Amino acid sequence: MPAVLFHSKNDSPEDWEAGLAKFIPNLDFRVWPDVGDPSEIEFALIWALPPGSLKQMDNLQCICSLGQGVDHIFNDTEIPEKTKIMRLVDPWMAQAMSEWILLNVLRFHRQGIEYEQFEREKKWHVLPPPETSDCKVGILGLGELGSDAAKKIASLGFDVAGWSKSPKDIKNVKSFSGDNQLEYFLNRTDILCCLLPLTPETDGILSSKTLSQLPRGAYIINAGRGRHIVDEDLLKAIDSGQISGAALDVFHEEPLPEVHPYWTHPKVRVWPHVSAQSNAGSAAKQVADAITKVFGGKEPDNLINRKNQY
Ligand code: NDP
Ligand code: OXD
Description:
Layout lengths: L2 E5 L5 H9 L6 E4 L9 E6 L15 E4 L5 H4 L9 E3 L4 H19 L2 H9 L15 E5 L3 H11 L4 E6 L8 E5 L4 H6 L3 E4 L13 H4 L6 E5 L8 H9 L3 E6 L19 E3 L9 H16 L15
Parallel strand pairs: 1-2, 1-3, 3-4, 4-5, 6-7, 6-9, 7-8, 9-10, 10-11, 11-12
Helix pairs in contact: 1-9, 3-5
């Protein structure tokens, strides 16, 4: 049987090997850098493998991201056109992401930043209560994760809209699409959640220009990728009062360097890229199905469009 190569910074190879073995008992599972004979590798299950590492694997048929995002794979410009690229699409991750997004939407909506400050000052101070239906939540990206989060937020009575490449029809979620509707979408968004993939089109999408198109005092939640945000622009927008606060799970450099101003900014919350972690328990079956299909010469599910890069 051909071999599978595994690489990850955080996920346990033992968990994945055991998870896959439930479905493919004799799988030849090799953990980077113990590749063995590179020509035997036909399937790679990877996260952030250093670019160029796959180029000696002449028989590599398919690369599967060990996550829902695939930008780390496109960092490697030497992947041959014939190699298929796919990703996890795991409802367990969508649930985890929606929980994290909801946690932060609710914290901002229920004046968490203000009450946490009063608490630090031991002030018993009461603000007028917010109205849920007046709070406009906007989701950048209405794919597997964004659409799940949008539906769950809408079910609580928030006024929800989403922005995507193509228009969507999701109950109780207003749809905006394409570059020419981005400004209208931003103009009506009090709490902006970014769940876009990182591509050449979305790199740096949250800059001084787009942040200034939000209503004054809006909030930012980012679980897409760090590079969606121009950090200096976000910090300036927070310090000027244009943005009231941010919850960030992803960063240009991870781990976030100790000297980064986000760590100590009172209006920024830093999370260590944990909003929706990959889970061998929930996702091994779909990866095993993909391996079986690829080894049998068939197309796996959840293939990436190489032109769009997501
Ligand atoms: P999907 O591919 O399912 O959805 C992507 C969405 O973004 C689609 O709605 C797509 O529009 C939209 N989109 C892409 N490019 C553009 C563009 N140029 N303009 C407007 N809309 C665009 O991705 P997922 O929902 O599965 O995941 C999204 C991202 O979340 C991942 O790529 C990853 O970066 C991040 N992520 C982060 C995690 C974490 O723990 N922090 C965990 C998992 C993922 P359309 O539908 O029209 O194609
Ligand atoms: C992912 C991630 O893309 O964890 O799955 O960031």
